[in-house]
Automatic annotation (TrEMBL):
The active site is at 38 (nucleophile). Belongs to the pseudouridine synthase TruB family. Type 1 subfamily. It is an enzyme of class 5 (isomerase). This is tRNA pseudouridine synthase B. The gene is truB. It holds the Pfam family TruB_C_2. The lineage of its organism: Bacteria, Bacillati, Mycoplasmatota, Mollicutes, Anaeroplasmatales. Its EC number is 5.4.99.25. It catalyses: uridine(55) in tRNA = pseudouridine(55) in tRNA. Residues 176-216 form the tRNA pseudouridylate synthase B C-terminal domain. Residues 23-175 form the Pseudouridine synthase II N-terminal domain. GO terms for molecular function: RNA binding; tRNA pseudouridine(55) synthase activity.
Length: 288
């Protein structure tokens, strides 16, 4: 059953709950995902099943694309609609000024994460500091808003303007922080109303299957999911690879991750841990 799924996460459920539900549906021992979506966010989640969970590190680095609905003139502790509103002011932004503010955010190469996030400082998650009432200085992180597109006109709903924006961002980028920063640049505040992840790496929302519709038939085999180069080893290396031997320049000069192939089929997936030094991420019980 080892493999991966492209899931369309529904609203109102945590990413961890998605994995727990899939374990029950599939009868799997393990499930893991490639990046947390907040409970009220929807869209693309890449979920690994059983031994494929060891390979999630190979897709964590991918850029992501979102469609965000941002409301101007509101603020909350979580920077979205999931907690009590702490500030309510009148704002009348223009499309032109929103675009100028987005250009400013696009030029920045760092961002301060929300306090209600799982980013760790000194071994403790930021939301744990907030829950305990401990002040903490949140350092900025190297992330990037790569592209944006304003998808709608401004709408006036419940005495506040809101807008839909599509963004393409690097790993670790917080859309809630973008809403906060956009509001501040426009002289007020703003929070996230809705969020849909439409792309994670090369996987698009069109590839995703609604959580309730998933079956074992939807699992993508590891070899179909990861297009990696192959390094062929001689027969004497087969038991050594199965025991997790460290490989070096005598076997390959590839920089990166690769399949180890043999007369018995694919034995393992190895990664470069130092210059021309390689260790296994996953060893297959039988040649594939």
């Amino acid at each position: 059953m080892d493999g991966l799924l492209i899931v369309d996460k529904p609203k109102g459920i945590t990413s961890q709950s998605v994995c727990l539900k899939l374990k029950r549906i599939l009868g799997a021992k393990k499930c893991g995902h490639n990046g947390t979506l907040d409970p009220n966010a929807t869209g693309v989640m890449v979920v690994a099943v059983d031994s494929a969970t060891k390979l999630l590190k190979l897709i964590h680095e991918h850029d992501k694309e979102y469609i965000a609905t941002i409301v101007f003139g509101l603020d909350s502790n979580t920077l979205d609609m999931d907690s009590d509103i702490t500030k309510d002011i009148s704002m009348n932004p223009s499309i032109k000024n929103i675009q100028l503010a987005l250009e400013e955010l696009k030029s920045r190469k760092t961002q301060i994460p929300p306090l209600t996030s799982a980013v760790k400082i000194d071994g403790m998650k930021l939301y744990e500091y907030q829950r305990k009432g401990i002040d903490v200085k949140v350092p900025s992180r190297n992330v990037e808003l790569k592209e944006y597109e304003i998808l709608s006109d401004l709408r006036f709903i419940n005495n506040h303007y809101e807008i839909d924006i599509k963004i393409s961002v690097s790993k670790g980028y917080f859309v809630r922080s973008l809403a906060r920063d956009l509001g501040e640049l426009l002289g007020g505040c703003a929070i996230l109303k809705d969020l849909r992840r439409t792309k994670s790496g090369e996987y698009k929302i069109e590839d995703a299957i609604p959580l309730d519709n998933i079956t074992k038939d939807n699992i993508i085999p590891i070899f179909s999911f990861f297009d990696l180069p192959k390094v062929y080893v001689k027969d004497y290396m087969i038991p050594l690879v199965k025991n997790g031997i460290t490989m070096d320049e005598r076997q390959t000069s590839i920089h990166g991750t690769f399949y180890v192939d043999s007369s018995m089929g694919i034995l393992a997936i190895y990664e470069e841990v130092d210059n021309l030094k390689y260790k296994p991420i996953l060893i297959f019980k039988e040649g594939k």
